[in-house]
Amino acid sequence: MHRNHEQITTDCYSYLSALGEWNTVYKVVFSVGALVTVIAADSVGISAVTLFFMMFLSVGVGKIPGRDYFRLMKVPAAFILLGGAAIVVQFGSGDGSLFRTGFFWTNLFITESSLSLGLHVTLKAFSAVSALFLMTLSTPMGEIISVFRKIRVPVLILELMHLIYRYIFILSETNQRQKDAAGSRLGYCDLTTSLRTFSGELANLLIMSMKKAETYYDAMEARGYEGNALFWEEKRPLTAKQLLYGGLYLAILAGAFCLVWRRG
Amino acid sequence: MTTKQKKLIGSVAALSVVLGVTPNAYAMHIMEGYLAPQYCIAWGVLCIPFLVTGYLSINKKLKENRKNITLLAMAGAFIFVISSLKIPSVTGSCSHMTGTGLGAILFGPSAVSILGIIVLLFQAILLAHGGLTTLGANTFSMAIAGPLLSYGIFRLCKKLNINQYFGIFLAAFLGDLFTYCVTSVQLAIAYPSAQGGIMASAVKFLGVFAPTQLPLAVLEGILTVLIMIALKTYADPELKMLKLDLGEIK
């Protein structure tokens, strides 16, 4: 989408999502609430229900393109797969295992309980990520910071967050230009040159950022900054429709809890 | 096919899967949903004293000179950006620096703890790396333990008059390794093995992530040294602004 900062894609979606109109505090409470439920309940049923409901909200209601949603889901996949492998595969004597193979001086083996734990944790992680995505793919950073203000995070931290958020885009755009300039001069022709170019770019980026910091402070001061930056916040009303989705989720959760409880 | 051959094919396949699924090797952020509530809270609480120290030191810096606010914010953005850039590599896999060593050497460990938690929060929100519930655990390993060790080694090498560039390499390299070990232990405590408990589990997590994290630590060390050389050559005044005197570096 944005060539300049292709890394920072969730940010673009947060401005495009149809859920952007939702009340910010409600959205954050909904998302974090679902997240905590998934982790605290620690049950396959709840994880699966939450995963599908959150996907429905982000893709179905929020209109995030499905392909992009799954591409974003793949980001944490490397960690989840490796972490899952470490949980599934055990080593030791390996009595009563499903699968066992010799490995140097010990055995690698998989037991039924380790396999189910691994699959369970993987599902739980994807479910938790989908709950997090409900918030991140629909709420611009400025609004998330406004929620932090409401829970009384120190002003200094909030100000730092606002400024860091803005500077991230400035620096990554600057770096993209450096990269293009270096690339067009064969700065990335082989590994040694690449490493030298890369580190040169970063050193230069630091110098430029320190110089820009001073300019930006002067610019802020010229606009009346006196040690307290104020940011405008849009008011987003909480509507019955938004509450309906929350209610629907709670109803489904209650159903799932009942099923889990009955099964024992 | 003999059993031996089958086993060989099996292990080669496993190895290729492990190497194949690491096209995007970030530093080890523990993913959302991976830790049970009690561990999320425990690691978060463990971070508080360090964060308070960091907050007070930043507050003091700002009382001295209000202009430091943009400087600190730039430092935070810089740490975020270097951790989101792909390191050039021959294999086409794409790995990223952690920036913990460089950050600690440039900005000091107390400032890095606060900047680090903000950067980790932004990574969770903007890049889907790490998470909100695992923020405490990730902050402890990446914004507190790693930077503290890096900074300690950097100062120690300076005191012992060891070649400064070697000191910087060691600081960044060991800081990175330490972060990776702490994360493995955090995961092991949350998921102990049935046989052997936490120790065995830690060995498993260390082993599984070693193929990505060990080369990354070496690369991080080399890159940090190259960056410091470039900074020393072109930006002595700016380094002084950061209260970092590299005058002794030849």
TrEMBL record, chain A:
Record Pfam families: CbiQ
Chief location: membrane
Transmembrane domains' residue ranges: 28-54, 75-93, 113-139, 151-170, 243-261
Localisation per UniProt entry: Cell membrane
Membrane topology: Multi-pass membrane protein
The keyword Cell membrane is annotated on this UniProt entry: yes
Keyword Cell membrane among UniProt keywords: yes
Keywords assigned: Cell membrane, Membrane, Transmembrane, Transmembrane helix
The protein's name: Cobalt ECF transporter T component CbiQ
Organism: Caproiciproducens faecalis
Lineage of the species this protein comes from: Bacteria, Bacillati, Bacillota, Clostridia, Eubacteriales
Gene: cbiQ
UniProtKB/TrEMBL annotation, chain B:
Organism encoding this protein: Caproiciproducens faecalis
Family the UniProt entry places it in: Belongs to the CbiM family.
Subunit structure of this chain's protein: Forms an energy-coupling factor (ECF) transporter complex composed of an ATP-binding protein (A component, CbiO), a transmembrane protein (T component, CbiQ) and 2 possible substrate-capture proteins (S components, CbiM and CbiN) of unknown stoichimetry.
Keyword terms of this UniProt record: Cell membrane, Cobalamin biosynthesis, Cobalt, Cobalt transport, Ion transport, Membrane, Signal, Transmembrane, Transmembrane helix, Transport
Bilayer topology term: Multi-pass membrane protein
UniProt xrefs under Pfam families: CbiM
Positions of transmembrane segments: 36-56, 105-128, 135-154, 166-191, 203-231
Localization annotation: Cell membrane
Entry keyword Transmembrane helix: yes
Pathway: Cofactor biosynthesis; adenosylcobalamin biosynthesis
Job of this protein: Part of the energy-coupling factor (ECF) transporter complex CbiMNOQ involved in cobalt import.
Database matches in PANTHER family: COBALT TRANSPORT PROTEIN CBIM, PTHR43627
Name listed for the protein in its UniProt record: Cobalt transport protein CbiM
InterPro entries according to UniProt: CbiM, CbiM/NikMN
